[in-house]
């Protein structure tokens, strides 16, 4: 993709017009080719941008304003409909360009499989990488009904690449028994049901390390985020997720990239989910980009 001119569509509020001057590249990954239940997350990035106009530019949590972080909204990566192999290659190629320019990649999904090529690209630049993963689901399957490229496999893929002990999952409340057993046997950290308190215990262990954070919006209870592909009861509140984002901001980990995925706006006529996602992105930008 070209970065020599600003994206002509709707952009996230206060997006900086100049790529070269920006610290962060915000981009969409509009793919839902492998979902097993409800499609529609490919429309998530566009809607998050559109509703962001309703955000306040100031965060009372962090006492910072969006003007303090220069981020360039590059728009959505043009992905070939129905072709996961090529789509993932294009995502990795895009993120590599961002990393080569020493900028912070910030992705919006899209189904969770889109995180896999991003994490792979980030690992190539930061070989000591750790992953913080917040989700309702383990995403540790080797395949789903015979398909290795599935939204239920990205965490297994990155764990096998960087080592399971470097992957930390939080808020997990759904998955096959075999997935939980694999994590336990291979030294991967999984915190069931909760995020904030176990995160507080883990963050000091990651001090100084490069960390990539991937958040599936369904870590939230469906009462807080009904607009997602695979809803799962018993999740955390939006207040707890915000507090977890701020806990990372106060820690000594070096966040080198992030994404927020699985917003499917068609299932939420109130637009609560998209509006929550845009606020979460504001807090991540202000808290994690120094």
TrEMBL record:
Pathway stated in the Swiss-Prot or TrEMBL entry: Amine and polyamine biosynthesis; putrescine biosynthesis via agmatine pathway; putrescine from agmatine: step 1/1
Q: Which GO terms describe its molecular function?
A: agmatinase activity; metal ion binding
Q: Which CDD domains match?
A: Agmatinase-like_2
- The protein's required cofactors: Mn(2+)
Read off the Gene3D superfamilies from this record: Ureohydrolase domain
Enzyme class label: hydrolase
**Alphabetical GO biological process terms:** putrescine biosynthetic process from arginine, via agmatine; spermidine biosynthetic process
Give the SUPFAM superfamilies listed for this entry.
Arginase/deacetylase
- Locate the residues binding Mn(2+): 112, 135, 137, 139, 216, 218
Q: Name one Pfam family in it.
A: Arginase
Q: Which InterPro entries match?
A: Agmatinase-rel, Ureohydrolase, Ureohydrolase_dom_sf, Ureohydrolase_Mn_BS
Q: How is the cofactor bound?
A: Binds 2 manganese ions per subunit.
Is Nucleotide-binding among the key words of this record? Answer: no
Enzyme Commission numbers on file: 3.5.3.11
Query: What are the record keywords, sorted?
Result: Hydrolase, Manganese, Metal-binding, Polyamine biosynthesis, Putrescine biosynthesis, Spermidine biosynthesis
Family the UniProt entry places it in: Belongs to the arginase family. Agmatinase subfamily.
**Its biological function?**
Catalyzes the formation of putrescine from agmatine.
Protein name, please? Agmatinase
* Record organism: Neobacillus mesonae
The organism that produces this protein has a lineage beginning with: Bacteria, Bacillati, Bacillota, Bacilli, Bacillales
